[in-house]
Design a protein that fits this description.
Structural class: mainly beta
Oligomer: single chain
Largest sheet: 22 strands, antiparallel, barrel
Strand content: over 45%
Helix content: under 10%
Shape: globular
Radius of gyration: 26 Å
Number of strands: 40
Length: 742
Amino acid sequence: MSRKTLRLLPSGFALAIALTSVPALAQATDEDSDHPNGEIVVTAAKRSENLQDVPISISAISGNALAASRTNSVDDLVTKVANLQLTSIVGDNTPIFALRGVSMSDYSLNQSSPVATYYDEVYKGNFAFLGVAMYDLERVEVLRGPQGTLYGKNTTGGAVNIISRTAKLGETTGYVNLGYGNYNRMEASGAVNAPLGDNAAIRLAGTFARADGWFKNVVPGMPDLASTREYGLRGSILFEPTDTVRFTLRASTSYQNPRNYGIYAQPEDINRPGLSKFEIASNIAQRRRARTYSVALTTDIDVSDTLGITSVTSWDKGKLSFYEDTDGTASQLLEIPYYDRASQFAQDLRLTSDTGGPFDFILGAYFNREKVFNRTTFEIGKDIDLTGDNTVTVDDCVEGLTNADPTDDGIACLFRNSFTQVKKSYALYTDLKYELSSAITLRGGLRYTHDTGKQSEFQADALGVDESLVATLIPTSSLSYKTDNLSGKIGFDYNLADGNIIYISVSRGFRAPSFNAQAFFDPSELSVAKAEKVTSYELGAKTQFAGRSITLNMAAFYYDYRNQQFINVDPSTAAQTLLNFPKSRIYGAEAELTVRANDMISIHSGVGLLSSKIIDGTVSGTVVDGNRLSNAPSLTFNASLDLAIMDNDTGKLSLHPEMAYQSSQYFEVINVPRLQQSGYAILGAHLDFETADGRWTASIWGKNLTNKLYFTSRVDLLAGFGFDYNHIGTPRTYGASVGMKF
């Protein structure tokens, strides 16, 4: 194993994470909506509107539907929203989302995905902010396509909005749910809402789960991996001092400390000697730890009957650390501890009109400051004795770095880098609509963003196994950038006589510049990637028929994708730098169908087609022009059925089978055939009972019922370490739960 191979390693990981997805459109599944005909009101366009009236490709799923289908992790959204993709290469509940082929080709913990994640209108750009969130939800909204006007940077692919339930005036209500499942899974969740006088109310919600690891560890005395051990707490206070002023204060915290995920390491012959498909031989026992804190104040003021002011002020803090057994074996060939600590402050202020006339607008200003500390260590061959003294010490690292034998380069060494990163973003934005006639509406918007970033105190060292310094490879260094961006959108809606709409739009989004976190061996690896941009051309339709019992939404799109950020390795020097693909193109189409046949049967389905192609790009000295983008299945499909088996004075018994399918895909842009994932389907179902008064519920559920083994990411480490690095999806899980409302 040469030093060049060691330098190639982080790049190989990063290239495997280029996620891709096809979009699905506006599927609404609100099982107990307060709105007629199952309509969902969304806030995707920063104002409350019927989902079918918003000329954007959106999927919206109610909190009740998510809870009933056991969607208790953001990772599970990929089976609910057609063509939404993710990789969880850094662990559960820290997904890297992708939409319509727009992806992040870097797994570093300091990076922000091009598909932004928002909790209650608060942007969560860093992995350390995510934590436990999928409980006591109002709904989840998935917006496809560049959202460069209302949402701003890092939304070249789209945005995922997670909206929690908040306190309600004059109500004393609540619920509690308890459950048990295989792998000794125990869980509890609940919430209570109570008035605080006539003008205020409080809501407290929480969730707890614990389960043994499903990745069976065959090493005696070592724990099974991929366990569950987490809790989340959220509180909200609503205060309405007058009819025109509303304050909503939210605070939350979460903690996770399970056994870390396991790596499904495969040698070249695809066999894993002595191991079955869900077994691992790991020598790492350390727990994964993730802690989050968040506070946000939303202020709504009705200035007049037609104008309103909204302010969202937020603060976040989080830590994420885990020790990855990268080689997936009981040896110490390759292990990587990660550490990420982050904090942020954000302020969004906007003025919204609702005149009821032909012209309406949103004018806003935004500020965000994010500070990140990142540390990563590559531990190479810590159990290899090069000096022959029957013990591994710092002398072995020195021998590995200085020995003339290139196969010893880096053996018995720890390669560590660390840095602090501060990014600031200032933005002014507007969103406008004007009714040219009763049938045609013109829509548009602009957003000006000024971004600055500084990476300071960057240093990379070679250490002995006792962490004593052997050599400083990159002396203390710093980088910075300053950039300005103008994003925009323009489009037309055509309102048909029956209330359906056809829309066409052109929009542009951008992803901010990024610092390289994978520099370990040479100062030339320190780099800043330029901002990437996506220009989208989209044609869509939102339609309902048969008394709105049938909803069919469709869209077709074409993307001009410029400067996608990726890790590149110079073949002559082996230096790894964060650079840009000059150009790719993506086009596709999608449709979502909901049929409410009667009070007993409803069907929901979504299908997406995608074609992605790199027009101009080179990776590790290999020209990849004409290759597919990674994690880009050409076909995705999902379907679910809501079937009421019994509905009488005793209660309601209903069955809900579901299926999600995706065709074959690559996990990296070089398109290595060996690492291709073949097409597969995931099956699940839940059987629910609810008493006639709605007070008691019971459910039996199952996920991945066929126990399908499938890959969620793959990396080629065959040449340097003799195996392919793989993540696999969760095997079959099942259980039962009971609940009570009061």
